[in-house]
Design goal:
With about 280 residues, this protein is an alpha/beta fold. It contains ten helices and twelve strands.
């Protein structure tokens, strides 16, 4: 399927009764206590949407969320079953946190080979702003039969980041403050050579939608990323903001891998260098 990683609210509205369009609410919060927002889902969501608890599905659950990578393939298979996802389904994900959680799950599902994963552009806020229907009915899916297969070209590790070629651009999708580093904390800052593109700069500040393709190309071009011949890796703090960067890149035709461990993993090894500004 592939094509654009995004679908519009109108697309979702037109496919609410389509059994092969599986809609997932991935709302959550980040910060010192990241977590799922199941209660908000129960209070209102897009009709037919299933709640996807991103802290429990398609993630390693035996470590802190900020450090948790993708699960092994056995647990990924279990998650696809739990969520009722089959290979022929079009999966649409949405959140209300600047696409942070939807983008992360989009990347994980694609990493495990699902061909039809999309993100609702503008998420839940855009859906509400349009006055589209809201439901409080809880949906429990039947078991899915999708068989995951890892797409290794979509993920890189610390060794690959450290030994990347000179013409590979490493993007850090965190805020400027996080990228810059804290005075007195030698292990804050960023991976040497990484360029900073805060993930929120890919979004329109008023509507919450991704900016148009031409604006995205200009944004990435200013950072030295040519949409015709770029070699890019994406990173951030924990693999979430970097996933939003991947959505923006994919939107203009650039396929890039994610450093899943990102800076939270990188800084733990004292032998790995850190830069500050």
């Amino acid at each position: 399927m592939e094509g654009s990683p995004l679908v519009s609210a109108q697309y979702v509205l037109d496919h609410l009764e389509d059994p092969q369009v599986k809609l997932f609410d991935v709302r959550g919060v980040w910060g010192d206590q990241p977590g799922a927002l199941t209660e908000q889902y129960m209070q209102g969501h897009i009709p037919h949407a299933i709640y996807l608890d991103w802290t429990q599905e398609l993630i390693t659950t035996t470590t802190a969320i900020a450090d948790a990578p993708v699960p092994d393939i056995k647990n990924a298979h279990q998650s696809f079953q739990n969520l009722g996802i089959s290979a022929e389904d079009t999966v649409v994900l949405y959140d209300d946190y600047d696409h942070l959680f939807a983008s992360r799950v989009w990347w994980v599902m694609r990493y495990f080979g699902h061909p039809g994963v999309k993100i609702l552009d503008g998420g839940w806020p855009n859906w509400q702003a349009k006055g589209y229907p809201v439901s409080t009915e809880n949906h429990t899916p039947e078991a899915g039969d999708f068989l995951p297969k890892e797409q290794h070209h979509l993920r890189v590790d610390a060794h690959e980041v450290l030994n990347r070629s000179n013409d590979t651009i490493l993007v850090d999708g965190r805020s400027v403050e996080s990228y810059t580093g804290l005075a007195g904390d030698a292990r804050s800052g960023h991976i040497p050579g990484a360029i900073n593109i805060p993930f929120k700069s890919l979004l329109d500040g008023h509507s919450g939608l991704f900016i148009d393709d031409q604006s995205l190309k200009q944004l990435f071009s200013k950072a030295g990323i040519d949409s015709q011949k770029a070699t890019v890796m994406s990173s951030c703090g924990s693999g979430y903001a970097g996933s939003v960067i991947l959505v923006g890149l994919k939107k203009i035709g650039i396929e890039a891998p994610l450093y899943d461990g990102s800076f939270s993993e990188w800084k733990k090894d004292p032998d790995r260098p850190v830069e500050q500004i």
